[in-house]
């Protein structure tokens, strides 16, 4: 009899692992369980769906259940929820949500791709119906509907991370009155050093958002958000406080957990139980610069770790070298990106740091389309090893972070970065790319 | 008495070396000789000056002679041409072009930054007054004047390299009727593989340029360019056949020359004579991937090699690791970039290659601003080492070449590139960056 792989979760990680396993091992019997109504969609696209930039929610779906069934011979079962895993018996308890019946499914190998869920702070009134996290495509569709309705005038976004900023912009574009409440003194404070985060404040306010930094939410009630400064009107509250790994099923089954409750995996994406794998937002990963285990929920990481899991499930051998902490977004016209460690993260990891923040332009300063950009480079004292970079600026600024991300993987020093043969023509860059200008200034301080 | 540094050539290379030397050694007596009327300008900006994008030619000047005099204590002598170098006597013969007198200037160290000159093919009528290379800012100013005049209706651009394409677009934007004559079958044939170069043909023609590929120029006469297919009307002819190192002075002095007549230098930018240095477009450089000495005339390389020369002149120690062959430009809305070796270059250098060309989009395909882009990745068979990459596509496509340029410096394999933690959000990229998509496909062929 063919070996059976059961996949729990039919989104990016689960289905990428399943497809890769199928490619490696045509004989596998693959069953994928998804409690929702869609497979493999771009969760990162939800803010753009809500903003009205995407024609149809179906556009966010990379592959439909039928495509998986026909092209990859994967038995995708929609509206089927895995409710328990028995690691000894090697079975999954499954609830068919449509026919309301429960059954057990045996597995030889199991792939856990249960994703993450928006963090809901333990505050009075948090369970109110108008308080939403951004998780599934169905959530996105519902919010798009609400955004379109004129009644939805007051939107409060709690938190100022990537999703918070992207959702705030989406609602502003529909004409809503958006207030952002952030306990920290500046946006994206976990991602950016204070001097770089400060540059974003102007961009957020310029968007017409009533941004309240340094103001904590104290509770919710129907139509209101309470903060230290008093109540705010809120027809809708969007939670942008980040996500936590959805690892309850794994934990209850007895799989070992790691950082912040994520599922512990080794470099092959294997969990503590042989033949059981995890990848994507539910799993732990590794930071190549801090050399620490971390939890990071990003589409890129989900796809990469799932591919590694799939290769190993299919009988191949692959390891995931880890991440360097790259992230990017756009707030109206202002682009933001970061990679590596922030100064605080670097010091927490034990590095003594030097850094430099340079003001420059996205393209040759004498061209009419040149826009300001700021680059901060962080390096290790004495060795000059690049540890991190942060960028805020106009069009074309942020994607330059990839140069730094690549340099981090290669453990380059700032001197190495200065000598890189980066592309230059006036409509693309200054002669010394801004990334190199920042590296040069730091190199002078090492 | 203070040691004297004489700098021949007051453009990017000469003045960057002089400034760096000054920073390292405050006691140096520095004299810079420039036969023209401007120092340190962006020659790469000339096509944009001619196109009308730059307000004033002075905007292209990074630093004026007075700034060098006052801020760096460099004795800049404008309209002074070095006419001979006596390496034994350690003197330079100088012609003061304004006062029409000649004198000798002794040096302890000499920095040669004589640049490059446009290639003028040995064809009948090549010396006609309407046949122009793009070299100095004064050339640029003159062409801007001509472009503005309605009389200048027919412009023929000979060659289709970077400068040829940029100048063709500049004249098209002023309403000229532009014909491009290129002996090769496609544009940028030395830079791009045929399948990638083909993508550019449409862009060039879409610009309204009468592009004649596979058609060689046979000669010129007043108002005409002769090709195998007959004469073309030409009020102005722009040469876009690349540049050759301007090393006559160095050669006559007895300095050793290298590839294509460029001045031979070691990794510290030292020439064959102690205390005599060269950098920028006149000097030889080194290709980190092919491991061959090459001549390459680019602003980035000029600035980098000049900085190295300046550090060494000032008593420091620095070496230039070489280039990886990165270049970028834009033809109307189409961006083009390349790095590393083309397939032909790689095979000539002895590599057995595999490659893949992928069609993708600049940003998430479901967003309205997504534009097509093509990425070709070239790798070494067996080892999978990345050897080169080429990109053609819409806005945001080409600057991604820097990821490949950085990966080449680190001698990464295509598998390493696939695992890079590159930035992703829907307005910036597909989940797998196009660079990684190409690397993945090649990795499958290694």
TrEMBL record, chains A, B:
Domain FAD/NAD(P)-binding: 4-288
Phylogenetic placement of the source organism: Bacteria, Bacillati, Actinomycetota, Acidimicrobiia, Acidimicrobiales
GO molecular function: oxidoreductase activity
Official protein name in the record: FAD-dependent oxidoreductase
Cofactor: FAD
Species of provenance: Iamia majanohamensis
Family named by the database record: Belongs to the class-III pyridine nucleotide-disulfide oxidoreductase family.
Pfam families (alphabetical): Pyr_redox_2 (PF07992), Pyr_redox_dim (PF02852)
Protein origin, superkingdom: Bacteria
Keywords tagged on the record: FAD, Flavoprotein, Oxidoreductase, Redox-active center
Keyword Oxidoreductase: yes
SUPFAM superfamilies, per database record: FAD/NAD(P)-binding domain (SSF51905), FAD/NAD-linked reductases, dimerisation (C-terminal) domain (SSF55424)
Domain called Pyridine nucleotide-disulphide oxidoreductase dimerisation: residue spans: 328-432
